Amino acid sequence: MTHTDEAQQVYKACTRFLTQHYPRTPQQVLRELAETTDPDIEVDRYGQGEIINRFEAEVAALLGKEAAVFMPSGTMCQQIALRIWCERRGTSTVVFHPTSHLEIHEQKAYERLHGLHAILAGSPDRLLTLKDLSAIAEPVGALLLELPQREIGGQLPTWEELNEVIDWALQRHIPTHLDGARLWETQPFYRREYAEIAGLFDTVYVSFYKILGGIAGSMLAGPADVIAEARVWQRRHGGNLIHLYPYVLSAQKGLREKLGRMEVYCAKAKEIAALLAGFPQIEIVPNPPHTNMMHVFLRGEQEKLLAAALEIAKETRVRLFQWLTPAVLPAYQKFELTVGDATLDLPNEEIESLFRMLFEKANR
């Protein structure tokens, strides 16, 4: 058995977790869905049917939009939205942050599939600002903003800063699109209804498999005519599957069970950040967290920290982290901490004790 295989076995045996929700097997997920599904509901067919139409209407209302369409992935939602807005504006230029999912995780699909040209506005290490946008001189087909921005620790602009950016686009008649993959987590920060947050944007994408814990799936919401056109593009992308009901049922379940917990998740994140910031070997970004997410920077050698975390997992069956990413500062390693149901069950005192143990083991 290799070291990697051994580590996988150790982490598989863990029963408690610092980040996210508890892992579930496919059997557990499907059993729960079966137990909570109306036995008389009929399957959807190529995006139509009560099961999917009703859910689309529910999410559209939650986001304050005329219509919405369920799609298998957010990658599909966002490329389609930008394509539609750019064609209507008559220009192929889109603006988004350098760490946008479209830029770093989608193999340049916006360019290769849709012929769009991107202006990467702002610095990779901070939020996009009005000053960054003011430097753009050429015509723009659409502006994409991500709330919160995952790659910089889940940071959010203030409500005033967000409105300044939106006003820049409004004054130039530039459509705005929200990458709301983690929009659900922003409500405690802004203290506003989802419809008010989403109302700043012409179109909005939301995800159901992240904090909501769905199997997969996303939704694009906006004006009825845009969503009607998006359905055509969904078909062109091969996303109009004959049946989507497992994803829809799972998304519905996640929305029903977890949407009301965002306040608790975000409060726990602030508590964890406060106690971890007390360690001289730890930096938190942002501190305090803006949502239930933060980036944790650990001072030390990567291999020693990983070995220490593995040893803790073996002794306590608690998984702190499995991977570390080198930070810009060479003395630090980074991991993403997202508070979910599993995190809530770890007492703060124990978390503090586990990190104390981590550095003791790493520094032996």
How would you portray this structure in words?
It is a single chain. This protein is an alpha/beta fold and 364 residues long. It folds into two domains: 123 residues, Aspartate Aminotransferase, domain 1; 232 residues, Aspartate Aminotransferase, domain 2. Helix content is 44%, strand content 16%. It is built from 16 helices and 13 strands. It is globular and about 60 Å long. The model has no long low-confidence stretch (mean pLDDT 97).
Number of strands: 13
Gyration radius from CA atoms, angstroms = 21 Å
Please write the string of helix (H) and strand (E) elements. HEHHEHEHHEHEHEHHEEHHHEEHEEEHH
CATH class of the largest domain, anyone?
Alpha Beta
What is the straight-line distance between the termini?
26 Å
From the 3D structure, determine the CATH topology of the largest domain: Aspartate Aminotransferase, domain 2
Count of the separate structural domains: 2
Q: What oligomeric state best describes the polypeptide chains here? A: single chain
Output mean pLDDT. 97
Largest pleated sheet:
7 strands, mixed
Biggest sheet: strand arrangement? 2-8-7-6-5-3-4
Strand content: 15-25%
Query: What's the helical proportion of residues?
Result: 40-55%
Report the structural category: alpha/beta
Give the tags:
globular; 16 helices; 2 domains; four-stranded antiparallel sheet; seven-stranded mixed sheet; 364 residues; 44% helix; alpha/beta; Aspartate Aminotransferase, domain 1; Aspartate Aminotransferase, domain 2
